[in-house]
Write a structure and sequence with these properties.
With 101 residues, this protein is an alpha+beta fold. The chain has one domain: Beta Polymerase, domain 2 (2-Layer Sandwich). It has helices at 15-21, 28-38, 67-71, 90-100, and strands at 2-9, 43-48, 52-59, 85-88. The chain has a four-stranded antiparallel sheet, with helices on both faces. Strand 2 and strand 3 (52-59) form a beta hairpin. It is globular.
Length: 101
């Protein structure tokens, strides 16, 4: 099982990109279930703040194109490739601790 963290933040993406991916509080649970199902994830945590949108999850599959998960969050076609980051396993845990500290 692979643990991953993928996201965009104020350090990697302009405000316009983050606004397109931002998730409203009342939609976060439904979108997380949607991402879990269509992204073939075993577990998921969806984090959306003014500074970042991140997806933490586990999957049996390899993490090839986590960027496609973000396309589920917007109705518009975005070129978010240059703005995303992804961490796996221990690096994902380290990233989570840095974000929450």
């Amino acid at each position: 099982m692979k643990l991953f963290a993928a996201g965009v933040s104020h350090k990697t993406a302009p405000i316009e990109v983050r606004e397109q991916l931002a998730v409203q509080r009342n939609e976060i649970v439904d979108l997380a279930h949607y991402l879990k199902w269509f992204g073939h994830l075993d577990e998921i945590v969806l984090l959306s703040t003014c500074n970042r949108v991140e997806i933490y999850g586990t999957t049996q599959q390899t993490i090839r194109d986590v960027k496609s998960l973000f396309q589920f969050l917007t109705s518009e076609e975005l070129d978010i490739g240059p703005h995303t980051y992804a961490h796996e396993d221990v690096d994902a845990v380290r990233h989570l601790f840095r974000v929450t500290a």
